[in-house]
Amino acid sequence: MFLPGRAAPINAEEFAHLRAGARVLECDARGEKVLLTPDNRIIKLFYPRRRFTSARIYPYAIRFWNNTKRLRDKGITSIECEQLRYDPQQRRHVITYPLLPGTPLRDCLHEGRCGGEHLAKLAGFMATLHTSGILFRSIHLGNILVLEDGGFGLIDVADMTVRPWSLGLFRRARNFRHLLHDRRDREILGKYGYQVFLAEYETAAGISGYRSRLLRALIKRYAPAFSG
Q1: 3-state secondary structure of 211
Q2: CA 130 to CA 171: how far, in whole Å?
Q3: Domains delineated in the chain
Q4: Mean pLDDT of all residues in the chain?
Q5: What is the pLDDT, as a whole number, of residue 3?
Q6: 177 Cβ partners below 8 Å, 6+ apart?
Q7: CA-to-CA distance for 146 and 100, rounded, in angstroms?
Q8: Weakest-pLDDT range from 29-33, 103-107, 205-209
Q9: Cα dihedral 19/8/65/70 (nearest 10)
Q10: Cα–Cα distance between 76 and 125 in angstroms, integer?
């Protein structure tokens, strides 16, 4: 596991300078979460979990940092983090990185700039992730960017496991359930055809015969929408 050096502290004055002129892209009840600076850099803020979980031992900011490197090591386009800071007053980690140029696949489909060919490509991309040992639990059409070269890139990658071997069928099936968390994505995939998407995934992943039957049985349990 790659670990960055100890997070350098950042005080209120330094943070104010860092975010000067930035536009808030995402926030919640705890405050700002994602900002875009005038020079096209992202400031991502990670707040502590309220309950005691593994995130207290292995913070999501560190997971995010590590996962971006692991993805790039496996040839998957993702963010390139620049610095990791810790704000002791607000008890939050701060990560900065250049904006990864691209459009969320969900927006691209909604605006009509992408079509069914991109969902077919998504099925193949998901198969590539699984074959590469990548379980992206936050997989949804908003976290997959359509890049300027037409490929895909991943953002918001803190909740991810990267293994040195291909994922088993059980983990693959559960990842299909993650793909259905957002209502908008369910509607998009439903119109495209769940069975079509699953068949394209199996072809790209080289899954057939008894493995296909077993995978479909598991998907029927964890993501029944794909079972037709």
Answers
A1: helix
A2: 9
A3: 8-98 (3.30.200), 102-227 (1.10.510.10)
A4: 92
A5: 54
A6: 222, 223
A7: 10
A8: 29-33
A9: 140
A10: 10
